[in-house]
């Protein structure tokens, strides 16, 4: 069985223990054994990044750009291989896995160009003879904690800007998907980036992630994951005044108005709620449907779900792959029971299903006649479970859409320019979609939400500079 080591200060080092990486589509398929770092090894990685920062932070921006471009080029050249690895360890379908690998490659190439255009300002002073310059400088060591649901794209959109703006990195991938994180690290290790600038430390969040929180040499922490862990990161970072950004939960609404194109609305709802097994923070888990179209929407959604094939992620006929692991499957199934107990009507799916291989397969669960006070309408499930909530009119639908502690993504299906325009302005979310799924975003524009979904600067695009740099104002007397 293949064993995969941590990358620390340019060397591949075995950990204190190993973690077996299992295929959720076929539990007999062990992808490999991946090193698990302890606190001491994590501190060595942080020290290496800290030592490498002074030279890297003021070094050639062309060298940064060349390295990031080389990384992106290799990821794109190997997108099918990397996509298959992702699908094998996380459970996304193969087209989704290849698509994510493509996105990761494009992200590195985008930030290769951004490394050459780190912007500043030169302003006139209010005082005669004085010059004022505003510049952006790197923070220092960045601790990156990535989730399991996008194991190539999310590490890419954190690592690439961190390096582009002159920071050094210690990266912890999620324990469930170390293969994708290791693959990115292996490509980075051959990019020409000096030893210590990028470090891979695989291991438990309570061990590795906690060292990021506690160690004063870590200047910033970029975290994507659960609300509870995000709150823990925030409390620890605030205690020592470290910079941090959080991407956490979502309970995203998709509003469907009476005038919507039914085929467009149902396709957007089904894809947004259930594809990628619903394991997306942008998934449309609340489908808020105006009463005039409500019966037709329920029936059309049920019919479309009947055609959806759940199966092994690598099989070409599969539309939706398995749930990522037993714990997540248990959580999903518990919410199906909760929905029934709360009085919602289960119109499709909700049961565990068997396939040719032993995996965590679940039929997508669609509830009707839900209301916004139910737990299935308020708590993030993070699986293929969605609730349809009736709305009296547009104003009621908007009120329901905004009645949540989260605010990541929000969507509307309508043929009315009036309502689409009003919704874009008044939806309390960081991202708004019109006549398309709430999940699925471009790599060159900001990603992030409001309220309990996100904290700190946006990720992706030029807005990434807000987190990965600090602003300095300099005055010169002529």
UniProtKB/TrEMBL annotation:
Keywords: Oxidoreductase
Residues of the active site: 247
Pfam families according to UniProt: Aldedh
Signal peptide stretch: none
Matching Gene3D superfamilies: Aldehyde Dehydrogenase, Chain A, domain 1, Aldehyde Dehydrogenase, Chain A, domain 2
InterPro entries named in the record: Ald_DH/histidinol_DH, Ald_DH_C, Ald_DH_CS_CYS, Ald_DH_CS_GLU, Ald_DH_N, Aldehyde_DH_dom
SUPFAM superfamilies cross-referenced by the UniProt entry: ALDH-like
Stretches assigned to the Aldehyde dehydrogenase domain: 19-473
Origin superkingdom: Bacteria
Similarity comment text for this entry: Belongs to the aldehyde dehydrogenase family.
Protein name: Aldehyde dehydrogenase family protein
């Amino acid at each position: 069985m293949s064993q995969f080591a941590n990358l620390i200060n340019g060397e591949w080092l075995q950990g204190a223990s190993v973690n077996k990486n299992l295929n959720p589509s076929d539990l007999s398929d062990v992808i490999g054994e991946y090193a698990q770092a302890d606190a001491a090894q994590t501190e060595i990685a942080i020290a290496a990044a800290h030592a490498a920062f002074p030279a890297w932070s003021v070094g050639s921006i062309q060298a940064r750009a060349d390295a990031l471009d080389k990384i992106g080029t290799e990821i794109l050249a190997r997108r099918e291989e990397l996509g298959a690895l992702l699908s094998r360890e996380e459970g996304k379908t193969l087209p989704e896995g290849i698509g994510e690998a493509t996105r990761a490659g494009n992200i590195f190439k985008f930030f290769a160009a951004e490394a050459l255009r780190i912007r500043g300002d030169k302003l006139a002073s209010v005082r005669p003879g004085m010059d004022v310059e505003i510049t952006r400088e790197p923070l220092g060591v960045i601790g990156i904690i990535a989730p399991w649901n996008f194991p190539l794209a999310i590490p890419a959109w954190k690592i690439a800007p961190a390096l582009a703006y002159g920071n050094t990195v210690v990266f912890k991938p999620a324990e469930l998907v170390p293969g994708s994180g290791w693959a990115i690290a292996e490509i980075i290790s051959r990019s020409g980036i000096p030893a210590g600038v990028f470090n891979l430390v695989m291991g438990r969040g309570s061990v590795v992630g906690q060292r990021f929180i506690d160690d004063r040499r870590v200047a910033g922490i970029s975290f994507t994951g659960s609300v509870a862990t995000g709150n823990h990161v925030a409390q620890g970072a605030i205690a020592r005044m470290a910079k941090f950004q959080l991407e956490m939960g979502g309970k995203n609404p998709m509003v469907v108005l009476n005038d919507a194109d039914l085929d467009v609305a149902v396709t957007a709802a089904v894809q947004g709620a259930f594809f990628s097994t619903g394991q997306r923070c942008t998934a449309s888990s609340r489908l808020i449907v105006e009463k005039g179209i409500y019966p037709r929407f329920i029936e059309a959604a049920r019919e479309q779900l009947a055609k959806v094939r759940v199966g092994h992620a690598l099989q070409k006929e599969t539309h939706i792959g398995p749930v990522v692991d037993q714990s997540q499957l248990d959580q999903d199934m518990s919410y199906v029971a909760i929905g029934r107990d709360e009085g919602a009507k289960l119109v499709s799916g909700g049961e565990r299903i068997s396939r040719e291989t032993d995996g965590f397969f679940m039929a997508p669960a669609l509830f009707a006649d839900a209301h916004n006070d139910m737990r299935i309408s308020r708590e993030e499930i993070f699986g293929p479970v969605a609730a349809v909530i009736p709305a009296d009119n547009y104003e009621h639908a908007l009120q329901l859409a905004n009645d949540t502690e989260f605010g990541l993504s929000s969507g509307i299906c309508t043929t009315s320019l009036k309502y689409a325009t009003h919704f874009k302005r008044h939806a309390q979310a960081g991202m708004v979609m019109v006549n398309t799924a709430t999940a699925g975003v471009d790599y060159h524009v900001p990603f992030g939400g409001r309220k309990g979904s996100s904290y700190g600067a946006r990720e992706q695009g030029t807005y990434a500079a807000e987190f990965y740099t600090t602003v300095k104002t300099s005055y010169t007397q002529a």
